[in-house]
Amino acid sequence: MTTQLPKERKISRKLTILLPLVIAVTLFLWLVPTSFFGIDGLTVVEQRTIAIFVFAALMWMFEIIPTWTTSVLII
């Protein structure tokens, strides 16, 4: 006999575990030196674009918040 978690618990788990993880990865990519990426001539703006793209991809992949909300958040 299997028991399913209530929907509130699933959302809570996503918000408490995955959201801080996604934010940490995004901040890491935002703050590391540009030489970390191994791309010659990478500017700070391009580095931040990569960080924002990774943030959006992780938010869509884990579905922490609705997809349309992530899209609006990025814009």
Give the key terms:
mainly alpha, elongated, single chain, 75 residues
Estimate the strand proportion.
under 5%
Derived from helix and strand composition plus strand pairing, the structural class reads: mainly alpha
Our count of helices gives 3
What kind of sheet is the major sheet? none
Helix content: 55-70%
Low-confidence stretches: none
- Tally of discrete structural domains: 1
- Gap from first CA to last CA: 45 Å
Q: What is the succession of H and E elements? A: HHH
What is the residue-mean pLDDT, rounded to a whole number?
Answer: 87
Keywords: Membrane, Transmembrane, Transmembrane helix
Transmembrane segments: 15-38, 50-74
What does this structure look like?
The protein has three helices and no strands. The protein has helices at residues 7-31, 44-62, 67-74. It is 69% helix and 0% strand. The chain is mainly alpha-helical. It has one domain. The mean pLDDT is 87. It is elongated, with a radius of gyration of 16 Å. The longest helix has 25 residues, at 7-31. The relative contact order is 0.13. The N and C termini lie far apart (45 Å).
